[in-house]
Amino acid sequence: MSDYTGRVVTATKTLKTKRNVRAQRDPACAKGGWTERTTRGLRILRASALAKIPWLVHGFSTRPGGVSELQGEKVLNLGFAEWDSQENVLENRRRFQSALGADRLTLVTLRQIHSDVVQLFEGPPAEPCRGDASATNRASLLLAVQTADCVPILLVDPKRRAVTAVHAGWRGTLQRILAKTIGTMHMQFGTKPADLLAAIGPSIGGCCYEVGTEIAVEFKSQFPNASDWFDELRTGDEPNPLQWLNMSPPGHQPPPKNVLLDLRKANRAQLLDAGLRSQNITVIDLCTACRRDLLFSYRKEGGSTGRLMSVIGIHDD
Ligand SMILES: [Zn+2]
Q: How many domains in the chain?
């Protein structure tokens, strides 16, 4: 048996004690590099590495604590929806910004279209732009993406003082939106990928995200390591091993069952491929579908669910 410093330890008790000491020194370590803090009734998730940067503001919203009412429950819905009033959403956004200490920043949302479009902002836009990633090196803007299963990713270049917010569902992941965003940061701000810190926010996990085998085929054709992100990389072409069990005539078998896709893993791999250091990537491993007490899941709740918001910005002082 050995502990993570490489020294051989013989007694389980010793190992436990050492772990406890380490956990007390750095509480964030114990939780995989991220924290949840309640501020003014809102539970906000943050990556510890990003929280250490004094000029940076960032956070991932959660479900409880807003003024919107969803089937008798008060929720922090941060996206405009048919079931919710505009006033509620704006009040929720105001409360979220206030809890983050970002009242003075201008919220910049996108009209998200599951694309690979990266928008560069030098000031607040007159109306939301179409795209799925936003980037800036200007202070006073609070870049935001909205999700309810898809993966939100926040990136910061601490050396060049630049930030981005990215929305990646399976389409954006397949179109390599993260790689393109990092390319934009390199061109616009001179960012070196090895300097970047990344936080991957709560999204649907590999435990719950079922997709058709045709999506597995597309990933397989695009990424050599795609098999690492699926529970099994079936493509639908394999013979159905249970064919003899069903009574359908040949050629009429039920379609093969779906496969499970781990989008967080796929996007983490994209960050590593782009040149980020593994220790600079924080993954908040909460599943939106498993944790409907804390998050929103479009897959599990359908159109009448709320939207989470992930934000990042540069303070102007
Ligand atoms: Zn799950």
A: 2
Residues 24-67 have pLDDT tens digits of 444 444 468 999 999 999 999 999 999 999 999 999 999 999 99
Q: What is the pTM of this model?
A: 0.86
Domain harbouring 109, CATH code: 3.60.140.10
Q: From the centroid of its chain, how far is CA 238?
A: 33
Cα–Cα distances in angstroms (integers) from residue 139 to residues 124, 132, 317, in the given order: 11, 21, 9
Question: What angle, 0 to 180 degrees and rounded to 10, lies between the N-to-C axes of helices 263-274 and 177-189?
Answer: 30
Among the listed residues 257, 246, 211, the one whose alpha carbon sits nearest the alpha carbon of residue 230: 211
CA of 260 to the centre of ligand 1 (A): 10
Domain range enclosing 170: 29-204+275-314
| pLDDT tens-place string over residues 189-209 | 999 999 999 999 999 999 999
**Could you count the other beta carbons within 10 Å of the beta carbon of residue 94?**
13
- Whether the CB-CB separation of 191 and 162 falls below 8 Å is answered with yes
Ligand 1 centre distance from Cα of residue 17 (Å): 32
